Every structure is written in structure tokens, then in C-alpha cells.
Amino acid sequence: MASSDSDENPDFLLSTLHSDSEEEQQEQKQNPNSALKELDHTHLLHSINATITIREVRSRGLSFQLWPAASSLVSLLDLNPSLLLSPSLQSKQTPLRILELGSGTGLVGIAAAALLGARVTLTDLPNVVPNLQFNAELNSLVVSLRGGFVSVQQLRWGDEQDAADVTSTEKFDLVVGSDVVYYEELIEPLLKTVEVFAKGETAFVMAHLRRWKKRDATFFRKARKNFIVEVLHKDPPLPEWRSGVAVYRLTAKK
């Protein structure tokens, strides 16, 4: 992913997010363990002294890689969850029900399930689902030992049927996402999907690394039409980047 504020080569980003060749898709469906250039990353969750393992498959595109915003959000869930959770969620007696949008590798959602003992639904594009399922199963023991549960579903932003299918399985207490603002054409579908799930007391907590001034400004301008946008946390600038990861809470306007 580009590490500047320019909007150069956006078509590459869109094609990488949305397409694999038919041969790659078929191979992944038949054998999700056979993808090339696999990398396993371990993440220590300090508050529960447990480790989760995430498989990256960088050769398959952006959705199969780990990005800074995901790691920042996991760190907050681990070391300062009260910053992200409202008082009502912190005091909830039953397991939290969390939806992750654009899960990618599933790091955030899997960590949330283990750290919070939550019921988490990971979602992404159809071609990303097999690797998500792989990572969910890879960490099923550490998640279940903490009372959590992870499921995986297809959810294409802006697709009403996909949204309806996800809605039918669970009523969510919290929606999360990290590095989900990539391309201007995806902003409207993303916000449309957020509007479906982030209603009433259910907020959308989003970790985001600003990369493109124009694109980011467009997202937040459109988001503020229907949501109250709060900044919950800011990391210091990353090396070679102009900014650090920021975490936002979007709450539907009443």
C-alpha cells in the first residue's frame, strides 16, 4: 500500500482489493492451505498471556496482509479496552456480539474474541473468506478457552442481500474495522453497510491510518452526514509516514 498522501494509481488498489484470477479463486477454494508466499505472524496478548497466530498470504493482495491500523486496534483492545467500549458494554453480563467489517486476515476480530470472550463475526469479500476461516480455526482453542467464539461470513459492502444474511445471524453490540478506507469508489458502499449495523447504541469503532488527504477528507465529510465522529486515540507518527494510526468512533445521529 502506498505510503504517501498522493492519489496515484488508485486503479491498482481497487483491482487488488476486488479481484483474483479465476484460477487463483478456484485454487483457494479447493485448497486454502496451498497459497504461495505464506507468512505466519504471532501476536502476544499481554492481558491474558496468550498468543494468536495469523497467516498472511501477501501474493494474493491487500486483503491478505497485515496493516498498521489492525495492530494498533489490537493493542488497545489488549491494554486499554475501556477506551473503546462504552460503559454499558463494559458492564454487559452476556458475551459481547461484535461484527468486523473488511476483516482481511481476521487479526482484530480474533483478538477481540479472545481478549473479551466475545462472539465475533468476521466478514470480507468471498475470495478472502477461506483464509479468514483458516485463521479462525487456527486460533479456535485460545479463543474458546476465553469463552469467545468466531464465525466467518461473506459481506460485500453495499450488497443488501449479504447485509441481510449477516443481520439474520446476530444482533451486534459493536462494529469494528481497521484500514477500511482505501478507494473513493468504496466509500459510499462502506458507509451504506455501516449504516445497516451501527444503529442506536451500536457504534462503529474504526482504526485508520491517513494516507490520502483527498480520499480521507471525502470519507469523513460523508460520514459526518449521518454519524457523530469522535477521535478516541492517536498513535505517534509511524516511521516513514506523516501520521500515526487514529481510532475513531462513529455513532448514528438521532
From TrEMBL:
* Keywords, comma-separated and alphabetical: Methyltransferase, Transferase
**What InterPro entries does the annotation carry?**
Methyltransf_16, SAM-dependent_MTases_sf
Span list, region Disordered: 1-33
**Pfam families, per this entry?**
Methyltransf_16 (PF10294)
Record keyword Metal-binding present = no
Listed Acidic residues bias regions: 1-10
Q: Name one GO molecular function term.
A: methyltransferase activity
Any GO BP: methylation
Protein name in the entry:
Protein-lysine methyltransferase METTL21E
- Organism from which the protein derives: Rhynchospora pubera
